[in-house]
Every structure is written in structure tokens, then in C-alpha cells.
Automatic annotation (TrEMBL):
Physiological role: May induce apoptosis through the lysosomal-mitochondrial pathway. Translocates to the lysosome initiating the permeabilization of lysosomal membrane (LMP) and resulting in the release of CTSD and CTSL to the cytoplasm. Triggers the caspase-independent apoptosis by altering mitochondrial membrane permeabilization (MMP) resulting in the release of PDCD8.
Main location class: cytoplasm
UniProt cross-references to SUPFAM superfamilies, sorted A to Z: FYVE/PHD zinc finger, PH domain-like
Residue span of region Disordered: 218-260
Subcellular location field: Cytoplasm, Perinuclear region; Lysosome; Nucleus
Key words, A-Z: Apoptosis, Cytoplasm, Lysosome, Metal-binding, Nucleus, Zinc, Zinc-finger
Gene: Plekhf1
GO biological process: apoptotic process; endosome organization; endosome to lysosome transport; positive regulation of autophagy; positive regulation of intrinsic apoptotic signaling pathway
Signal peptide segment: none
Name of the featured protein: Pleckstrin homology domain-containing family F member 1
Keyword set includes Zinc-finger: yes
Length: 275
């Protein structure tokens, strides 16, 4: 595809430019054989609202970050190894067109492109890279994906009890297993989800029951095999009222897009793929 770009001067310059935009806040990106294939602005659906994010597609990783100053300064860099990525096209909504989901074991999220053509370009380029990465590493595609978080705005009531109405005082929480927006009462439990974190995470009551049952079944199976029981902390109820504050701690710390910036008319050039 763009193998001829590997280890070329132009490719090194492009990668150096990306590194310099992220500055000290980003990771070194240059690696022997790594090629920067394309870049562009996509709209990422975050918990509170959809925000523009700069995306860079390399032959082995997808990098994105928030835009401080277009083509000058980016921050909050995220790096996703492509062999972990699965894409899922999504239907259009009234608010958003040209959407698709980027799914990995750790995190899944929805992005949209400025046009159908751009969406097609991104999807086909990413899928081709994923295919090549899987071939090169001999890995199987990831089948278990993190549930994307349902945006806050999608619901005014708890999606589990359907009773609690959210307000400034009654905060929304997200189940880390199913991604549903739930009330504090419906998400009192914590469970260890090793793919997501080394610490037990907030889960809704339904997921907690399912995860516990599954866990018990696995433990019973272990006992039958006669292996010594392992006592690991696997979760439990959190005592006391939950303030909900910790929900902010693992939100993307990406900051708000300054509302006075007219993004669509600011002369940002859209996605470009190198050939
Ligand atoms: Zn509830
Ligand atoms: Zn859940």
C-alpha cells in the first residue's frame, strides 16, 4: 500500500511534525518501518458532547488528540494499537452523519467524518492496516470489546430502574461493563474488569449480578479441578452514599473545545491520505 514510504525522508518529516505538535505531552512516534498514512479531523462523540479531534493513521497505530491550535499544537494524546481495533459502521442519526465505531478491548467510541467519502477512506484505510497488522503479528482479531459509553444527553432517566430522573443534584453514572447511564442507587457495586483496569470499577446492578454469577460458575469449575482457591478481591458494595465524583476521574481529560471557535469555517483542511 504505502510500503515505499517506509524509512523515507518525507515520512520521517511527517512523523516529526506530529511529534512536535504534541510536544512533551506526547509519546515518541518514530519507529523503523512505521509509516504515517493519513491524518484528519474527525468528530468524536464524548460523554458530554461531540468534539473535533485530530487523528493520525499509522500502519500499526491510530493516534488521536485534542486540538489546541490546528496543525500547531495538540494534546491529550491517545495511542491505539491497530491489531486491537475493530470497526463497526453506524446508521445516521438526526445530529450526526458518516459515523462509525472504533472498538477495542479497553475502550470503544463513536467518530464521524465530514463526508461519506471521507468516512469510506478512513474505514478502508484503517481496515487494510488492521488486516496487515494481524497478518504480521499472527494475532487473532479481538472479539471482546469495551462497551461504548452512552452519552449523558441520551437519557434523562436511569436506564436500569427507569425511575430516577437526573438533575443537577442527581448525577449520572456509567456502568463500565455495559456503558449504560445509571443512577447511584443502581450502580453501588464494583467489579474487577481486568481488561479495563487493575482496580474494581463501577458496574450497574444487572451487570453485577451477571458478572458475579459468571464468577461463581468459574470458581466452582476451578474447585472441581481441585486447584487451590485463590482469594482475590473481586469487587463488592461501596458503603455510604456515592457522590458520583469519581466518574469524572476517568473521563477523557480533553478539555472543552472553545465554543467561540467556528470549527467548520476555520480553514481546517480535512483528511488527507498519503499515497
Ligand atoms: Zn437507577
Ligand atoms: Zn451494566
Amino acid at each position: 500500500m504505502v510500503d515505499h514510504l517506509a524509512n523515507t525522508e518525507i515520512n520521517s518529516q511527517r512523523i516529526a511534525a506530529v511529534e512536535s505538535c504534541f510536544g512533551a505531552s506526547g509519546q515518541p512516534l518514530a519507529l523503523p518501518g512505521r509509516v504515517l498514512l493519513g491524518e484528519g479531523v474527525l468528530t468524536k462523540e464524548c460523554r458530554k458532547k461531540a468534539k473535533p479531534r485530530i487523528f493520525f493513521l499509522f500502519n500499526d497505530i491510530l493516534v488521536y488528540g485534542s486540538i489546541v491550535l490546528s496543525k500547531r499544537k495538540y494534546r491529550s494524546q491517545h495511542i491505539i494499537p491497530l491489531e486491537e481495533v475493530t470497526l463497526e459502521p453506524l446508521p445516521e442519526t438526526l445530529e450526526a452523519k458518516n459515523r462509525w465505531m472504533i472498538k477495542t478491548a479497553k475502550k470503544s467510541f463513536v467518530v464521524s467524518a465530514a463526508s461519506t467519502t471521507e468516512r469510506q477512506e478512513w474505514i478502508s484505510h484503517i481496515e487494510e492496516c488492521v488486516r496487515r497488522q494481524l497478518l504480521a503479528t499472527g494475532r487473532q482479531p479481538t472479539t471482546e470489546h469495551a462497551a461504548p459509553w452512552i452519552p449523558d444527553k441520551a437519557t434523562d432517566i436511569c436506564m436500569r430502574c427507569t425511575q430516577t430522573r437526573f438533575s443537577a443534584l442527581t448525577r449520572r453514572h456509567h456502568c463500565r461493563k455495559c456503558g449504560f447511564v445509571v443512577c447511584a442507587e443502581c450502580s453501588r457495586e464494583r467489579f474487577l474488569l481486568p481488561r479495563l483496569s487493575s482496580k474494581p470499577l463501577r458496574v450497574c446492578s444487572l451487570c453485577y449480578r451477571e458478572l458475579s454469577t459468571q464468577k461463581q460458575r468459574e470458581e466452582a469449575k476451578e474447585r472441581c479441578r481441585g486447584s487451590p482457591g485463590q482469594s482475590a478481591y473481586l469487587g463488592g458494595t461501596v458503603s455510604g452514599a456515592s457522590s458520583g465524583d469519581e466518574d469524572d476521574s476517568d473521563e477523557d481529560r480533553e478539555g472543552d473545545w472553545p465554543s467561540q471557535v467556528e470549527f467548520y469555517t476555520s480553514g481546517v483542511s480535512w483528511s488527507a491520505f498519503h499515497s
